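Reviewers of the previous submission asked for a worked example of the structure-prediction workflow described in the proposal, so we include one complete record here. The input consisted solely of the amino acid sequence. No template or homolog information was supplied to the procedure at any stage.
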Amino acid sequence: MTVLRRRLERLQAELRGRDIQCLALIPGANLRYMTGLAFHLMERPSIGFFPAEGPPAFVLPRLEAPRFEAAAPYEARVFAWADGEGPEKALRDAMMALPEVHTLAVEFLRMRVLEFKLVQRHVPNALVVDAAPVMDALRLFKDEAEVALMREAIRITEQALRAVVEEVRPGMTERTVASRLAIALLEAGGGPVPFEPIVLSGPNAAQPHGVPGDRELRAGEVLLIDFGTSWSGYVSDITRTFQIAEPPSPRTQEIYEVVRAANEAGRAAAGPGVPCQEVDRAARRVIEEAGFGEYFVHRTGHGIGLDAHERPYIVEGDETSLEPGMTFTVEPGIYIPGEIGVRIEDDVLITPQGAESLTTFPRDLIVVSTAGG
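From that input alone, the workflow returned the following structure tokens.
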């Protein structure tokens, strides 16, 4: 039995167990997980319907249908529609081919009003529920093949990071460094990026999700780089903070060492049976005890796989027990507005024996370039 066929069987078992008659997915990570194909989210609606019993039904633009039919991973019915006629008839035929739907699961975080209104017209009385718990139950655990794809995405990312930091010089702009990262990822074989590279220097680094701009890199300041790539859909996400040209000041070194210790504490706390919030607490405790607690303004980490942010979440209140096959980030940071920001982020895999950091780029405070370079 193929991997995708097993996923379909597991999905249908989840639906039956939750008394959900059908799940509707649009192009994105969930549909790719279930079909192995990356469909485009565009003005032409594409919807996959996965009933709790029987074969799935796909409503697809006619130009997309042959690709699915050529690689169909399991028995499924395809209802194609042409640009001149619109999707209404295809959608109606698809819904008629499905068992009666009393409860429909849709992606609350992804499905657009366009698809939702189209579907709702044909099941106006159905109870609509969030698909996230259903899909999370499947995607939470990565198999060996999925982990291998993540390892390759990480290898490409670290290769690109090594290449670019060798080029960094004072006077370059944040935007220039971000552009060189994007090019280096492509040259190393990376796929679509899960998010645009975050490259921030000096006081700008105090913005956890700041946008690279025209600020020039200056000797003696920090340079925060947060970026990733994808390989066959699976993504990487790494952050390292560097020192530009000159040795760090005692205060910069102190802040950096606190973050590094927090990162190490978070990774050390992770393992089978450990609640997610305990990893957050371990990392956060280090920063709080050092007197910087108010400057750690986000969760310690998030799940990673086909999406850059998915379950589990490494945050207070998430009591999910970590189990082998789960992958997530550990990324504590200290952000002092107007002064400095430091973050160190690793991608972690839970194994039967404990936790493995898939990212291996050095965590020492590396001084890049030279003042005269």
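The CA atoms of residues 287 and 293 lie 5 Å apart. We consider this example representative of the routine output the project will generate in years two and three.
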